[in-house]
Amino acid sequence: MAIDRISSLINKSNLVSRDLSWLRFNYRVLDLARKPSRTIFERLKFLAITASNLDEFFMIRVGSLYNYIDYGRERVDYSGLRELPFRKKLLTECQNFVKEQNKLFENELEPIFEENNFKIAKLTDLTDSELKKANGFFDKIIFPMLTPMVYDNYHTFPILMNKLLIFSVVTRTFGEKKDNKKLSFIQIPQNIQRFYEVERDDKMLFIPIEELVKANIDKLFRNIEILSVNLFRITRNGDFTLEESDDIEANFLEEMRKKLKTRKTGRVVRIEIDKDYDKWMMKILCDRWEIDKDNIFKFKKGDLVDYSALWQIIKHTEFKDKIPSTPDPVPPLAFPEHKSDSDNIFEILKDRDILLHHPYNNIEPVIDMLEKAAEDPKVLSIKLTIYRLAEDSRITNALLKAAENGIHVSVLFEVKARFDEENNIREAKRLQKAGCFVIYGISRYKTHTKLLMIVRKEKEKVTRYLHMASGNYNEDTARLYTDIGLMSTDEVYAQDISEFFNVITGHSLPHEYERLITAPKDMRTRLIGLIQQEAENAKAGLPSGICIKINSLEDKETIEELYAASQAGVRIKLIVRGICCLRPGRKGLSENITVRSIVGNYLEHSRIYYFHNNGDPKVYGGSADMMVRSFERRLESLFLIVDETLKKQVMNILRYNLQDNVNAYEMNEDSFYKEVEAGDEASFNIHEEFFNVTPESIEDVRLFE
């Protein structure tokens, strides 16, 4: 099926392909690397992020597509295409994206390296003494780590690792027949630095390590003829789904370890290679891995392979002052005395609820509360869900301290958090050895909800101190991701959260929660009910409106209800950072729906759901996006915000997102995005404005008139 015909079929669909929508998102990240107003190091950072994003996309989304293709299973994309035509379209779009990355790097970024006192150099740029040192570095450090692996009639095909730089070397013994060739592979270990560094006066030269290896490769193939040397990199399928089985709980950790190992030998879904590759060698690889030209991404000799390598330059100590620092967090509106009175957190929470908006507000109040609880003899128990942790986690340390002090600690540790599985298993084991009650996930569900409860015995009663959030208990990402969290001692929240913990740690089926909406129990149904209520209000001539801020919108049932509400006259304002499978502005379908995406200095991670409710807004925050996996395969929670001041604060987050004209994009009906421009208006950048929010600025907040 021709690409033009495929594109025509896609455009007719009322739904947008999840995978093609994701590629549009990565283009928006790439746009940040185009901004000349940013420093070169910021621009390189965003280019590196697009490369890492694309790696994960191939491992997971392209890998998932190949799960269907390889096992002959039918798959119909939201675009209406079957698996093979969609594969063609998707890989073509990926090829186009890589061309855009390369063009940006070569034409806009690399030419300004030298004026910023660095250069990605070649060995020929070095002086004799510099070259001698570089070759000495190869001989002493790199050479002992390299292992040539031959593939012939006597040696099996070696296991080539995911995302490593690999040299294929075609050789022949001198004097042998022309067609008596051998193929060998040399993998550059991941613990070798990506660039060899040369400091020259006030300039840094970065020599790609592959240049150094290639120049010395004859030292690994003595007394034979080297016919060709090709650099390449492979990406393997990293998608795996734990299927429901009768004994999954008994063998859960072992099953996880087995699945993790498959990432090393999963099928190859992409090969990035020097465009002048040896054809004999490539035929062997294509036959071996069952790939074709669509999976082959070519680069020119001398090009930098894998832009995520740029992190070595971005984070170099020589340039540490070149990336603008993040402004210091400001105190939460409901906790202005945070810095001076953090010791009194338990008393303050008995007085009022606190809304945190990261990274504008610090995560310190939560960590302070947990660390104080760990040392407090009045604390009886701590219950917590963990999805991702910081590397040197204060959260883990506080829980360990609490267990040492005899406090009952229950932790639901999600060991299936993608790419954090090994770290989470290790941390969970530490907690378990310290005496914590640790649950390694809930059978086939991922625990994605973010909840904390501290039970404290006080003079008058037992008080439960709570934290509900959209983001992880990770002090590192809390400085980089926008998230919201609610701290409270409210008994209604406490009862709901206690019930939810009983569900996930024991065997309990609670009645309706009063302020929580949970998945997989009833989240989709409840959200659809709220959407339908707005539609009923619109039909009855009552005020109506929906405003939702999420990472991804992919659930078909929910999208259909949003379409129906739009047709009933409900104005719907969606702020969707990444994947959006809904088409806005289509005549007769979604004319009352707008979609915008915010991309900028911070990763927009908060999830907020607003329903006008005839002038008495219902506002929820929490961990869940509008995705099938969120509704059906994850433990998620959304919490209702009832305090009027905090509700206004959350509504203001939505209002500012709708006002932004610096980081925002508007989605067109054709699924492409257009950058929002300030024009004659004053610039409004939410990543600056949220540091300046005052109680007065949120008083008159309105999302719909």
TrEMBL record:
Q: Could you tell me which Pfam families the record lists for this protein?
A: PP_kinase (PF02503), PP_kinase_C (PF13090), PP_kinase_C_1 (PF17941), PP_kinase_N (PF13089)
GO CC terms of this entry = polyphosphate kinase complex
The Polyphosphate kinase middle domain sits at 132-313
Q: What is this protein called?
A: Polyphosphate kinase
HAMAP family hit by this protein: Polyphosphate_kinase
Query: Which sites bind ATP?
Result: 53, 481, 577, 605
A molecular function (GO) held by this record is: ATP binding
- Cofactors (names): Mg(2+)
Pinpoint the Polyphosphate kinase C-terminal domain residues.
344-508, 516-685
Query: Can you tell me which residues bind Mg(2+)?
Result: 388, 418
Its annotated function is as follows: Catalyzes the reversible transfer of the terminal phosphate of ATP to form a long-chain polyphosphate (polyP).
Q: Which GO terms describe its biological process?
A: polyphosphate biosynthetic process
What is this enzyme's class at the first EC digit? Answer: transferase
* Keyword Metal-binding found: yes
